Amino acid sequence: MFFQPRRPGPPPKGMPVQTGIPGLNLNLNVDHVQVMGTLLMMGLSRRPGFKEEMEEFMLFMQKMQEAAETISIQMESMHKEYSKVKARMQENTASVKRENSRQEMVPYNNPLLHHLFKLMSY
Predict the structure, then answer these.
(1) Cβ atoms within 10 Å, residue 50
(2) 79 and 119 share a domain?
(3) 52 found inside a domain
(4) Overall number of domains in the chain
(5) CA-CA distance, 90 to 34, in Å (whole number)?
(6) DSSP secondary-structure letter at 119?
(7) Which domain holds residue 4?
(8) Is the pTM of the predicted complex or chain greater than 0.70?
(9) Are 108 and 117 in contact (CB under 8 A)?
(10) 19-57 pLDDT tens trace
(11) Is 55 a domain residue?
């Protein structure tokens, strides 16, 4: 019923399109798919109410595009804020490390000397 699969020959011009149906080996490229899509749209355009459906679909697609642009702008602003906060956190951790290293110095037995050296280090 189905033809046996052939050995692949030289690649066709354009990008080959797979059908996704097992056992059906069609050698279609993008041009064939565009022609089939054009014929399909010509057939659908004769159906009553097609124009209104297409207008509704295009309005929906425009709203989706606007939403995508809004989301991308918000994502960019969030990334900028994240970068600022990350830089601030790195500065804070560096200052905390410096303070911790000062505190981790050898404690003196004399608290007065310890306090005096601590005041001198600022």
Answers:
(1) 13
(2) yes
(3) no
(4) 2
(5) 54
(6) H
(7) 1-46
(8) no
(9) yes
(10) 566 666 666 676 777 888 888 888 888 888 888 988 999
(11) no
What lies within 8 Å, CB to CB, of 108 at 6+ separation is 114, 117
Dump pLDDT digits (tens) for 58-112: 999 999 999 999 999 999 999 999 999 988 888 887 776 766 666 656 566 777 7
Q: Are residues 68 and 119 in the same domain?
A: yes
Kindly state the helix (H) or strand (E) to which residue 29 belongs, with its residue range: strand 28-29
Burial of 25 per CB tally in 10 Å (0-12, 13-18, 19+)? middle
Q: Are 43 and 31 in contact (CB under 8 A)?
A: no
Are 19 and 28 contacting, i.e. CB atoms less than 8 angstroms apart?
yes
**Is 51 among the domain residues?**
no
Amino acid code (one letter) for 97:
K
118 plus 88 within the same structural domain: yes
| Residues 34, 87 within the same domain | no
pLDDT of residue 1: 47
Considering only the C-alpha atoms of the chain, give the largest distance between any 2 of them, rounded to a whole number of Å: 100
Q: What are the residues whose beta carbons fall under 8 Å from the beta carbon of 26, sequence distance 6 or more?
A: 19
pLDDT of the residue at 99: 67
Token reading at 73: 């702008």
